[in-house]
Write a structure and sequence with these properties.
Layout: E1 6-11, E2 18-22, E3 32-36, E4 40-46, E5 55-60, E6 63-69, E7 74-80, E8 85-94, E9 97-104
Antiparallel strand pairs: 1-2, 2-3, 3-4, 4-9, 5-6, 6-7, 8-9
Length: 109
């Protein structure tokens, strides 16, 4: 299993302060941006040509796993998050973009 680390890309608004972009050399790869807030992490993935019912998202502490398949494409990515997360609290797919909101794990848990 390959885990691709995120790189700091840019500073965002007050809600999500740090922006990150996923990097990889895989041809079937897709872009991922991660924005970190005080209590939440927001991940946006570009998945063109995929139907929503063919996207599976799993969370394992500080790794978000995405599986997606379409007619001609199959995607799989293990995304190392900047902090461990407790659960996925929101998910939206629209026009080829998947947005996942995760709740950060508190330090005392």
């Amino acid at each position: 299993m390959e885990i691709i680390n995120v790189q700091r890309l840019r500073v965002q608004d007050k809600t999500f302060m740090a922006g990150y972009r996923q990097t990889s050399k895989d041809k079937s790869d897709f872009h991922v941006d991660i924005f970190e807030g005080e209590r939440k992490i927001r991940m946006i993935a570009e998945l063109p040509g995929i139907d929503e019912e063919n996207i599976k998202v799993y969370l394992n502490k500080d790794v978000l796993v995405i599986f997606a398949s379409g007619k001609d494409k199959k995607y799989h990515k293990n995304i190392k998050l900047p902090h461990p997360s407790e659960n996925i609290i929101g998910r939206l797919y629209n026009s080829g973009f998947l947005e996942v909101i995760l709740e950060k794990k508190e330090n005392n848990k």
